[in-house]
Design brief:
Blueprint (H helix, E strand, L loop, with lengths): L5 H26 L14 H10 L6 E3 L5 H6 L4 H8 L12 H4 L17 H15 L5 E6 L6 H12 L4 E7 L2 E2 L2 E2 L12 H5 L3 E5 L3 H16 L5 E6 L19 H8 L1 H11 L4 H24 L15
Parallel strand pairs: 1-2, 2-3, 3-7, 6-7
Antiparallel strand pairs: 4-5
Helix pairs in contact: 1-2, 1-4, 1-11, 1-12, 2-9, 4-12, 6-7
Bound molecules: thiamine diphosphate.
Length: 320
């Protein structure tokens, strides 16, 4: 694991705990019947969000994630209470309980909306990047999507358009090895997806997606390039989800031993081991973990205590 400073890795670890404990809380609330609807958890992929967001300037930059977006929201600074309240259909949720898990948006935090249409965030990010070429904001748009989305026509069109116009876009693939229940290597002839960048005329690189510092470095490099007007880039962050594609997915499609290996490599345990190896006391890490646990317990209690969204307001914010 890349370590530049202990503090930097502890800061990443704190955010990764916040994401993981949010997801665990959501799973528990779902089991209790309080959270309904489509929910895709991101356990195991936390380093991608933590690292990428650490490199961005959320005062100007914009993130366009997928339906697996809770981790992006938390990394962008959305309070866990607001995420939980949204999934619980509470009026105090980040979108008043209307968006739920797969559609919430937090533009005040630079997180411009999840999207359940696979790959659809890529062309939307191009729009945000195109606007930056007019408004002088210096904004870079980051489109995040899974490796399955790399085979969507909209993603191809977005990459070609961004490259042809030298738009400030970072295409960030969260390669968790499965598109829903289908292994990536059964879907493509060449599974080194970052190599497709050359075909569009932009730089492409693979990065260890379980190492937040490596992700921050990789995003930081292409971010500066994009901000300087030198166009888009494609990053492929290699990671694994350590939960099902959706809550309730029995994961029967995973070969024996694969999940154990993923649990060995997952970013939180790995960061803890790296910090311990540099001399950080176990008690210090226990204190960081416990503080975030308490934060989530308080957030869940507060969210559950909030009133449900008022059904009579259901037509508000609708444009047809
Ligand atoms: C346009 C479209 N096609 C199909 C689906 C159904 N679908 C939902 S998630 C998913 C898998 C996407 O895999 P990947 O892009 O690798 O992301 P991951 O779920 O692994 O994060 C599919 C095919 C959809 N939501 N949208």
């Amino acid at each position: 694991m890349t370590t530049r400073s202990t503090k930097e890795l502890v800061d990443h670890l704190r955010v990764m705990y916040r994401i993981r404990f949010t997801e665990e809380t959501i799973a528990a609330l779902r089991a209790a019947g309080d959270v309904v609807g489509s929910v895709h958890l991101c356990n195991g992929q936390e380093a991608v969000y933590t690292g990428a967001v650490a490199a961005l300037d959320l005062a100007v930059d914009a993130v366009f994630p997928t339906y697996r977006g809770h981790g992006w929201a938390i990394a962008c600074g959305v309070p866990p209470r607001a995420v939980l309240a949204e999934l619980l259909g509470r009026a105090g949720g980040i979108n008043g309980g209307r968006g739920g898990s797969a559609y919430f948006t937090a533009p005040d935090h630079g997180m411009f909306g999840e999207n359940s249409i696979v790959g659809a965030g890529a062309p939307i990010a191009c729009g945000a990047a195109l606007s930056a070429t007019f408004d002088g904001s210096g904004r870079v748009a980051l489109a995040a999507f899974g490796e399955g989305a790399m085979n969507q026509g909209a993603v191809h069109e977005a990459m070609n358009f961004a490259a042809a116009r030298s738009l400030p876009v970072i295409f960030l693939v969260e390669n968790n090895a499965y598109s829903e229940l289908t292994p990536t290597d059964t879907m493509v002839r060449n599974d080194q997806l970052f190599r497709r960048a050359a075909g569009y005329g932009m730089p492409g690189a693979r990065v260890d997606g379980n190492d937040p510092v490596a992700v921050a470095d990789a995003v930081g490099k292409v971010l500066e390039r994009a901000r300087a007007g030198r166009g888009p880039a494609l990053l492929e962050a290699m990671t694994q989800r350590i939960v099902g594609h959706y809550i309730g997915d029995a994961q029967h499609y995973r070969p024996a031993g694969e999940l154990d290996a993923a649990l060995e490599a997952e970013p939180i345990g790995r960061a803890e081991r790296a910090l311990r190896a540099t001399g950080v006391a176990a008690a210090e890490l226990d204190a960081v973990r416990a503080a975030v646990r308490t934060e989530l317990e308080v957030a869940a209690a507060e969210a559950l205590a909030e009133p449900l969204a008022d059904p009579t307001t259901v037509l508000e914010h609708l444009h047809a």
